[in-house]
Write a structure and sequence with these properties.
Chain lengths: 297, 324
């Protein structure tokens, strides 16, 4: 009797229920992480305000009013004050988000693709191939990564690509390392050997067996690199690389306002605050995602 | 009956440590192993852990390359040390493996249907036929087709092992290689899976190589038994012969260590004088590899490697004391 009813229960727990349950557990673990939901909301707000910047502010980010230079934070009409040319800082930060977020996201996306491919292939094939790839990537660890980025960026000249390419380059080695280690972790599993001995080629085994079972962990690591990317990009533009003067961008704004630090100390912090809040939110989100993925398995 | 599989003189050693001076540390995991399998029969390979059972399985599948060895499968001869990838794909279609741990042998990101059909579509079998076969063989292992869209993590160990068996069957191989297929399962489930193997063998006439450390399981399953000790086949015969009149001292030792409900196996092992643990395969004992543990050892055992001698029809033993 008992056995029969148990079997029926098993039968009733059909697959959609199982998936729904997994999704519910994912969302629950994610939301339970401290500050995960506020961080998510904050990031969405920053993203949307960058996208819809022209609709949100009456000012132009390039036109300053000379009479209204260096207004304090909280001045009516200029909520976050004005800079040394009399331009509204809030407006410039909103527009600047467009550049900063792209410079945070694109290098991570590029490095994730290249780094994962290199790492997965070395992890899967091992031996000489892994030695060649991984030891070549180790060369990049010989330089402090930000110095390498500065050198590459100054060679590439100006423009958005001279920020995105160097940062992609410095992100590839750590992502490839994590991908390689993750793949090596699952290689002893029997299902890999089962797939290999079923007569499938290496590409099929990688696409259907290796990637689905490693992607979560690699992806989580990549999201932590998002804040590294934003900070590096701001660092490069702070140094005057890549983005040229009138273009609003958090890093270069920070540099311009730096000169006013003794006159209006509060003003100089504002673009830095945007960088800080964005990077922090992304880090909290990736930690929460990691917990949630681990809980769902 | 004809030999569907003949394995002759398989050797494999693994490099453990490279030394600057002197000889490298090498484990000879499999040492001149030969056996054959007849159409439709079950061959049991038995031995304690570390004796090279799983290495034999991996050598047969070609996932490890042996140092030497020739395999004759369905009338075709393969030199396993120099086998090409085309040949590998060829004989892997004829031989499928069921792994020890069902919790690791199924891809957790694929449902049962995808797990079973992956190997089929990889071998260019059309999708419709592949899912038709998945349905048929899942039914053959006693699971309803409602399980097809379930994922492995919602299945029990026994169910997973059934799926793994169905996956192997779906390739319609001539031989199934089962590497300790029940040792990761509960006793009650073990019986189910063992009976499943028996049923399938009757139903499909498949030959089975059944690897286990558990002599009672192998005895129940097999027509022939090969006893492996430190990478060598030390006794080969029919299951009946092995269990009724074992010749090699090690086989006797194995048989007497099978715990009986009423018996007192622990007493018997405590009385033994020779060392209990397996000697290091890095420096295997001289002469007969079993002699340090053997209660009947003589001077000769430490010096000469015993030849394989036939002590009866279908009964081969590697021991100085047997056969003369």
């Amino acid at each position: 009797m008992f056995v029969a009813s148990y079997a029926q229960d098993q039968e009733r727990l059909s697959e959609p229920d199982f998936k729904k349950e997994a999704r519910a557990r994912f969302l629950h673990t994610f939301a339970a992480y401290p500050m995960a939901v506020p961080a998510l909301i904050l990031l969405i707000v920053i993203l949307l305000s960058a996208v819809f910047a022209p609709a949100l502010t009456p000012y132009n980010p390039f036109d300053g009013v000379a009479a209204e230079r260096l207004q304090s934070v909280g001045t009516p009409g200029h909520l976050l004050g004005t800079d040394e040319q009399g331009r509204d800082i809030l407006t410039r930060c909103l527009f600047g988000g467009r550049y900063s977020l792209v410079m945070g996201f694109l290098p991570v996306a590029i490095a994730t693709v290249i780094g994962s491919i290199l790492g997965i292939i070395s992890g899967y094939f091992g031996k000489a191939y892994a030695q060649i790839v991984m030891r070549t990537l180790d060369v990049f660890y010989a330089f402090p990564s930000i110095l390498l980025a500065i050198a590459l960026s100054s060679v590439l000249g100006s423009g958005l690509s001279s920020i995105i390419i160097p940062i992609s380059v410095i992100l590839v080695p750590p992502i490839a390392r994590v991908a390689e280690a993750t793949v090596q972790d699952i290689m002893p599993e029997d299902f890999i050997e089962a797939a290999q001995t079923s007569g499938a080629g290496a590409l099929k085994v990688i696409v259907f067996f290796v990637i689905p079972n490693t992607f979560g962990r690699i992806f989580i690591y990549c999201t932590t690199q998002f804040s590294v990317s934003i900070l590096s990009a701001s660092g490069l533009t702070f140094l005057g690389l890549g983005i040229s003067a009138p273009t609003p961008e958090w890093g270069s704004m920070l540099n311009a306002l730096r000169q006013q630090i003794f006159i209006k100390p509060l003003l100089t912090i504002v673009p830095g605050l945007f960088i800080f809040v964005t990077a922090l939110s992304v880090n909290i989100l990736s930690d929460a995602l990691k917990d949630a993925l681990e809980a769902t398995g | 009956m004809s030999h569907i599989l003949e394995v002759s003189d398989f050797c494999k050693s693994f490099l453990v440590k490279k030394r600057l001076l002197g000889e490298n540390d090498v484990v000879s995991a499999v040492n001149h192993v030969s056996f054959h399998l007849e159409e439709g029969e079950v061959l049991g390979i038995v031995g304690e852990s570390g004796c090279g059972k799983s290495t034999v399985a991996r050598l047969l599948l070609g996932s490890i390359r042996p140092d030497q060895g020739v395999m004759r499968l369905c009338g075709k001869e393969y030199d396993m040390a120099r086998v090409k990838s085309q040949d590998l794909a060829d004989f892997r279609r004829a031989m499928q493996m069921v792994f020890q741990n069902p919790y690791s042998s199924l891809n957790p990101k694929m449902n049962v249907l995808q797990n079973i059909t992956f190997g089929l579509t990889a071998n260019h079998i059309p999708k419709e036929e592949a899912s038709e076969r998945a349905r048929r063989y899942l039914d053959a292992v006693g699971m309803q087709s409602s399980y097809l869209n379930k994922f492995p993590n919602s299945l029990s160990g026994g169910q997973r092992q059934r799926v793994a068996v169905a996956r192997a069957l779906a390739m319609e191989p001539r031989i199934i290689l089962a590497d300790e297929p029940v040792s990761a399962l509960d006793k009650s489930v073990q019986a189910q899976v063992l009976n499943l193997f028996q049923d399938l063998r009757e139903q499909f006439g498949i030959s089975v190589i059944f690897i286990s450390h558990d002599l009672s399981v192998v005895e129940y399953m097999s027509d022939h038994i090969a006893v492996l000790y430190l990478g060598e086949v030390i006794e080969y015969s029919t299951a009946e012969e092995i269990c009724q009149s074992p010749q090699h001292p090690y086989t006797r030792e194995l048989l007497s260590s099978v715990p009986q409900i009423s018996g007192s196996a622990h007493l018997r092992t405590a009385e033994r004088e020779p060392p209990i643990e397996l000697p290091s395969p890095i420096r295997p004992p001289s002469g007969c590899r079993y002699h340090p543990r053997c209660p009947y050892r003589t001077e000769r055992c430490a010096q000469e490697v015993p030849p394989s001698t036939a002590v009866g029809p279908d009964h081969i033993v590697k021991c100085h004391l047997c056969g003369n």
